[in-house]
Amino acid sequence: MNYRVVVLVSGAGTLLQALLDAERDGRLQASVVAVGSEMPDCAGLERARTAGVPTFCVPMPVLLARDSAARAAWDEQFARAVERYDPDLIVLAGFMKLLGQPFMSGFRGRIINSHPALLPAFPGAHAVRDALAAGAKSTGATIFWVDDGVDSGAIIAQHEVPIVADDDEATLHERIKVAERDMLVHTVNDLAANRGKVIDV
């Protein structure tokens, strides 16, 4: 039985592409069965279509976050869209929305995320900028289980990336992404090898 992965994206989809390339080349011990987003024009969705992977989108209007009832309804709708593909694992690959309880209740323990810092240092949306501002000598990437907090789940894997003297946010982030891509492929393979393992988060 194949290990089924649904990938959620919000932007360019470079982490997604790493998984798609690995699957194409026979290096991924899993199948990306669908790619979803809350952004209709997300470039990551186009990457999936180019690879022949089914896509779905449940748009989230900007003002939705201010209405808790509407936000919960969106989470439920998004969860139903994911559930159609019966995933063993959900990978947040540059997915920029926090998932609420209606989603987490259905998939808790099956969701991983990648973050461009060595958690618990520099959580949040500006991790690379924050590491530079703090004068850190190194940072890196972390893959972790998603829980109810912000970048607070149990750590699965980390890779350190040194910060060099002439780094700016763009150059440092690009080097971190290189580490993230390789680490994500290895992590999905490791989880696929332990099929059926759902953790308590």
From TrEMBL:
Pfam families: Formyl_trans_N. Pathway: Purine metabolism; IMP biosynthesis via de novo pathway; N(2)-formyl-N(1)-(5-phospho-D-ribosyl)glycinamide from N(1)-(5-phospho-D-ribosyl)glycinamide (10-formyl THF route): step 1/1. Gene3D superfamilies: Formyl transferase, N-terminal domain. One of its GO terms (biological process) is 'de novo' IMP biosynthetic process. GO terms for molecular function: phosphoribosylglycinamide formyltransferase activity. Coiled coil: none annotated. Its EC number is 2.1.2.2. This is Phosphoribosylglycinamide formyltransferase. It comes from Propionibacterium cyclohexanicum.
